[in-house]
């Protein structure tokens, strides 16, 4: 594998919040672009609310993941490990959004933990590579 895979995963992770917000808008009442935050606050459709929550959580997860990928690369971690962890992170994060919207709280929490573990692993591998 090459580092290109992890870079594609960075792009995918950066775009995931926009997938979830699109679903929030599609499941809500007629979207009002003049007041997007106020519009979302007025939504009562559970899928719209959950998709918006997945959107926010995807933004929260991105910076540490990006730091992990880039830090591991800069520290000289084997690209195979970086790619595997990056692909796993994306799989976990997609499932996170799917389970959020489906109302599967336990599964959502489990895949959130998996994605978090991938990020931690990338950061730890980067730190250990510099010793």
From TrEMBL:
Gene3D superfamilies noted in UniProt: Membrane associated eicosanoid/glutathione metabolism-like domain
Keyword set, alphabetical order: Membrane, Signal, Transmembrane, Transmembrane helix
Pfam families: MAPEG
Transmembrane parts of this sequence: 50-72, 84-103, 109-129
Compartments in which it is found: Membrane
UniProt-listed SUPFAM superfamilies: MAPEG domain-like
GO cellular component terms, A-Z: membrane
PANTHER family: BLR7753 PROTEIN, INNER MEMBRANE PROTEIN
Name of the molecule in the record: Membrane protein
């Amino acid at each position: 594998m090459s580092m290109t895979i992890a870079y594609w995963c960075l792009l995918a992770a950066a775009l995931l919040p926009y997938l979830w917000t699109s679903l929030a808008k599609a499941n809500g009442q007629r979207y009002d672009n003049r007041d997007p935050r106020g519009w979302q606050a007025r939504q009562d459709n559970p899928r719209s609310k959950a998709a918006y929550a997945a959107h926010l959580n995807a933004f929260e997860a991105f910076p540490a993941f990006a730091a992990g990928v880039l830090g591991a690369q800069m520290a000289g971690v084997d690209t195979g490990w970086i790619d595997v962890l990056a692909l796993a992170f994306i799989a976990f994060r997609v499932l996170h959004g799917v389970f959020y919207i489906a109302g599967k709280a336990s599964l959502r929490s489990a895949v959130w933990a998996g994605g978090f573990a991938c990020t931690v692993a990338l950061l730890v591998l980067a730190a250990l590579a510099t010793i």
